[in-house]
Amino acid sequence: MFQYVNIRVIRVIHFGNYLRKFITTSGLQKYSNSSQNEQTTLDISNNDKQDMPNIKSRDMNYWTQHETDILKNAVFKHGNKWTYITKEYFKSSRKPETLCQKWKTIRLSESRPSYYNRWSAEEIKLLINGVEKYGVGNWTEISKLIKTKDSYQIQKKWKQVSKKKSGKWTKEEDSLLLKLIAEYGGKWNIISDFIDRPYNSCQTRYQTLSSKPWTPEENSKLRDAILKYNHDWDKIMKNFPDRTLYEIKKYYWNNPKANPNANTGRWKAEEVKKFWEAFEIYGKKWINISKDVGTRTPKQCHMFFRTREYTNEIGSQ
Q1: In sequence order, which residues have a C-beta less than 8 Å from that of residue 84 and are 6 or more positions away?
Q2: Fold of the CATH domain 213-260
Q3: Could you give the 3-state DSSP secondary structure of residue 98?
């Protein structure tokens, strides 16, 4: 049995040697002849191409507006007969499955028109309000405010908005801001790109530059509105058609006389206790501290902290 196996192994080895010899002689010669024939065919094809009219090559993945319009008209007439449409309307330059996929994209863009488009001023405003309300990172909650964008788009846009320059405005920036507003009106997304400042920063700065001093009558009206509506700003704003929400809130938080719940005298022991308890929780977030204290505005809380801080510095010297 072992002798039989050895003979078979020897025969396989001899056959392998014969096969290698065949490949290195006649096999390679045939391959060489075949390559020459292919080269000749290729040369003939190239000669034929020279006689053909020049046709601009284009990226088959890119759709022109003309092609998109053709597809819309074809689908309107023939429905989803993709094989027929590709032959009759696109001369087979687009595959049926490509037409089908493109049509799905068109329908999606039309059902949510601003999904693929540039962010509008209103959408950016909703984004900023959402971040102020829910905080950075709560993109799912914020996306509920912006129906035309998903959470990924919102997160990406916020990175762009928050990366822009911050800090004190220069006179040159103020001058440029006023010129841009005269030219573009309230298109804050365009103005923001020009000045390289966040959308809300441009809007707030303009409100500061253009705001009028508050009159005693307005102060009394705001105080009465707070007593009646508490912090229902939508209702309060109806009493001030010439003021923005930002102006009203800013004046309210910074002026104790406009706040019927705010004390203007010396801080009481109970107020001081509430202040430091809130400070342990919120740090220097004066609006939050003001809400916990209940009888002091954010500005009063800030000034109280600065006074205590200054007193401690003097005492340590």
Answers
A1: 78
A2: Arc Repressor Mutant, subunit A (1.10.10)
A3: helix
Cα separation, 184 vs 149, whole angstroms: 25
Ranking 11-15, 74-78, 303-307 by mean pLDDT, the lowest is 11-15
Q: Which two tokens stand for residue 317?
A: 């010297």
Q: Say if residues 143 and 149 touch (Cβ distance below 8 Å).
A: yes
Encode burial over 171-191: b for 16+ CB neighbours within 10 A, e otherwise: eebeeebeebbeeeeeebbeb
Report d(CA 16, CA 80) in Å as an integer. 58
Q: pLDDT for 116-165, tens place per residue?
A: 567 777 888 888 888 878 877 788 888 888 877 878 888 888 877 776 67
* Whether the domain at 213-260 and the domain at 264-317 fall into the same CATH topology: yes
- Please indicate whether residue 89 or residue 257 has the higher confidence score (pLDDT): 89
| Unique residue bearing structure tokens 């290195």 | 24
Q: Residue 112 — very low, low, confident or very high, per pLDDT cuts 50/70/90?
A: low
Angle at 127 between CA 203 and CA 202, to 5 degrees: 15
CA-based max dimension of the chain:
120
pLDDT at 222 over 60: yes
Q: How far apart are CA 206 and CA 68, in angstroms?
A: 42
Q: Is 219 exposed, middle or buried (0-12, 13-18, 19+ CB in 10 A)?
A: middle
Task: Calculate the dihedral angle through the C-alpha atoms of 302, 306, 312, 317, rounding to the nearest 10 degrees.
Answer: 170
What is the C-alpha separation between 27 and 20, in angstroms, rounded? 9
pLDDT for the residue 106:
79
Lowest mean pLDDT among 95-99, 138-142, 164-168, 281-285: 164-168
Q: Among 1.10.10.60, 1.10.10.2910, 1.10.3720.10, 3.30.70.660, what is the CATH number of 264-317?
A: 1.10.10.60
